Write a sequence for this structure.
C-alpha cells in the first residue's frame, strides 16, 4: 500500500468509528457549522489545532500559514477573518504560535530563502520593534522562544488593527483575542497575550466611522 493510500484507509476507519460513537455525527454537521473559535496557527505538521485542543469537527474554524502571521495584505487571511467574524460570529480568535518554529528561526538568520523572504520579513519587523528585549537575551534558543511569544503578541495586535475586528467590537462586543504558544516538547499551550473585546489600542490605529 502506498503512503497516501493509508490515509484513505484510516479515513474510512475514522468515519465508521465516529458513526459508531454518535450515529448522527455527520448528519448534524452536514448543514451547519457554528464554531465558537477561529484558530490562526502555524502550518507546522506538529501543531494540529483540533488534536492539541481536544476539539471535534465543527468546533474550530482554522487558518494556518508559516509562523501564524496576520498580514494585512494577505487576502486569504482577511477572507477567513471576515467570514468567521461576520458570518460565523466567532466569540474568540486564537493566534497560536509554537516554540521551535522554523519560520521564527529562519527570520533570525541572514540567509536568503527565496520567495519566503518576503513573508519572514514580517517577523523581522517584530524583532526590530522589540530589538532591545531580544538582544538582551544571551542564549539563541531563549531569543527564539521570546521572539515566538512577541510575534504572537504582534499578530494579535494586527488583528485589533483591522476594521473587521474594530467593527465587531463596536457593534457586538466580541470577539476576544488570544495569543498562545504551544510547546513541541511537552504538548502544553502557554497563554502569553490577550486583548478583550473593546480594548483600546494606540489611537492612530482606531477607526471612528465603522
Ligand atoms: Co512554525
Amino acid at each position: 500500500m502506498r503512503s497516501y493510500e493509508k490515509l484513505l484507509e484510516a479515513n474510512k476507519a475514522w468515519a465508521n468509528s465516529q458513526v459508531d460513537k454518535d450515529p448522527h455525527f455527520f448528519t448534524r454537521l452536514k448543514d451547519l457549522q457554528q464554531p465558537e473559535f477561529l484558530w490562526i496557527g502555524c502550518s507546522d505538521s506538529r501543531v494540529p489545532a483540533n488534536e492539541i485542543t481536544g476539539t471535534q469537527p465543527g468546533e474550530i474554524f482554522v487558518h494556518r500559514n508559516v509562523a501564524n502571521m496576520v498580514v494585512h495584505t494577505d487576502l486569504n487571511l482577511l477572507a477567513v477573518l471576515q467570514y468567521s467574524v461576520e458570518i460565523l460570529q466567532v466569540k474568540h480568535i486564537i493566534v497560536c504560535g509554537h516554540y521551535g518554529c522554523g519560520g521564527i528561526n529562519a527570520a533570525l538568520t541572514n540567509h536568503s530563502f527565496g520567495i519566503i523572504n518576503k513573508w519572514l520579513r514580517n517577523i523581522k519587523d517584530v524583532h526590530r520593534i522589540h530589538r532591545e528585549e531580544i538582544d538582551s537575551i544571551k542564549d539563541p534558543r531563549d531569543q527564539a522562544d521570546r521572539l515566538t511569544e512577541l510575534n504572537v503578541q504582534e499578530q494579535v495586535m494586527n488583528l485589533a488593527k483591522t476594521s473587521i475586528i474594530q467593527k465587531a467590537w463596536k457593534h457586538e462586543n466580541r470577539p476576544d483575542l488570544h495569543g498562545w504558544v504551544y510547546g513541541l516538547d511537552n504538548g502544553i499551550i502557554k497563554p502569553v497575550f490577550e486583548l478583550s473585546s473593546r480594548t483600546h489600542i494606540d489611537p492612530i490605529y482606531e477607526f471612528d466611522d465603522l
